[in-house]
Amino acid sequence: MTKNPGKKPKARASQTEQPFYHWEGDILVLNILGKPSAGQDAIGKPYGHQLKVSVTAAPRAGRATDHMVRFLAGEFGVATSDIEVVFGRMNVNKQLRIQSPKRLPAVIAQQALV
Questions:
Q1: What is the CA radius of gyration of the chain?
Q2: What count of other Cβ atoms lies within 10 Å of the Cβ of residue 13?
Q3: Tens digits of per-residue pLDDT, 35-73?
Q4: φ and ψ at residue 95, rounded to 5 degrees
Q5: DSSP secondary structure string, 11-35?
C-alpha cells in the first residue's frame, strides 16, 4: 500500500542526468535558472540541469541579466568582461561562459567532489 496514492515518486538523480555545469578547458560553462526581483542576490541549489541564481534587479530590458553577470563576477573572482551570456539574456533560462574563474562557489566545489 502506498502512502500517497496518485502521487508520483520523486525522481532520483542518475549518472546520466545532465549536470548544470561543465568545463571547456579553462572556461566554466554554467546553465542558469534565474529568478529576478528576489529579496537578495544569491546562488541557490541545482535544479535539474540548471543552477538557481536569484538577483534583486527587475526583469526589464536585460537589466536582471546584467545585474546577475556583475554579481557572479564577484562570486567567481573575475571581471564582468570574463563572463559571456551565450543565450537567455531576456529569459530566465541562461547559459554563461566564465573565463578562468578564480573562485568556485560552494555548490560547484561540492559537485566537483562527487
A1: 16
A2: 11
A3: 999 999 999 999 999 999 999 999 999 999 999 999 999
A4: -130, 130
A5: PPP-TTSPPSEEEETTEEEEEEEEE
